[in-house]
Amino acid sequence: MRDSTPDSGADLTSARQAPPPLPPLADLSAARLAEIGDRLVARTWRLGMPSWFWGEGVCLLGMLRLARARRLPVPVEVVDWLRHQHERGIDVGHVNNLAPGTAAVLAAAEYPEFADPALRLGEWFNETCSSTRAFNGALEHWPGGVWADTTFMAGVFLGHLGAYRRDPELLAAFGDQLLAHAEILQHPELGLFAHGSHRGETLWNFWGRGNAWCALSLVEFLELAATAIVDDAQVHRITAALTRQLIALAQRQPAHGVWSVLVDDQPENAGILETSAAAGIGAAMLRAAPLIPEHTETFTTAGWRAIRGALAYVDAEGGLTRVSAGTVPQLIPFGYSVIRDDRPQLWGQGLAMHAVAAALENLAQART
Whole-model pTM above 0.85? Predict the structure, then answer.
């Protein structure tokens, strides 16, 4: 007799073997957060950051946010890395190569020498960008596919370059990319973001780290918009998209704080936790809380729950564990259940730094 239950045919092997969640951290004082941040940074440099690529870009921005949250200057290690990469020559051929440019833009405020490579990255995007575009103008991560990742890797760079140059058109381009990606990837009813599309069809797999990329990018735009001349209608639409997403994520958050690799707990992935997603989403929630006052309490509570849960997975050496490897959009949900998560990843380190920085800023705001 055919099994007519909703999960008929699902392969639950990976989900059944998932280890149980760790208890969330109880103590997240400013001192404890600073200590965790130091361990994350030290471990990241020991792992190595060899390329001008997206994982390095996530880490560099995380280091800068962490330094800013602690009221420290641009770390000398970041300066040395940027100089070394500039001297050896920066090859740009993909939107992922724009990610480290955000650090170059931000560092240029203290080190003007980094303005030139940042501006040249902007020229590549505007004049020789080799990426194809979807029907609505969304940058395709690869030809035929719009990915959530692009909002962070390319979009955040565009926004900060626009702020640095006082160029409202670049900031507007960032906002346009966010809205174009939301049109394709944000589920019209659930509010969650899909990981990507394939040949014009959205694959409705609500990948956790993809939701983190989008949430952080939407928050980044709103923070930049608060100090720039922007289109009010664009701000309103981006605020609405972020609000819908974060409410949906808060409603689906487990008590221990860390979502499964697919945040809707699809049966084949339920219980396969992904800590980098929780770190990134938690950071976005804490940063969004003061920007969307009607949901401050909801986002603050869920954000702290996510960060307490995620940072419990930082090991003694400073590595964030249970981070999934680089992941392309999967055609079916089961594909996400077999992505390896048994070694440190730069993007996990970076997103954990974003979480620590957001938590420190939230504590500082609470004291004022």
Answer: yes
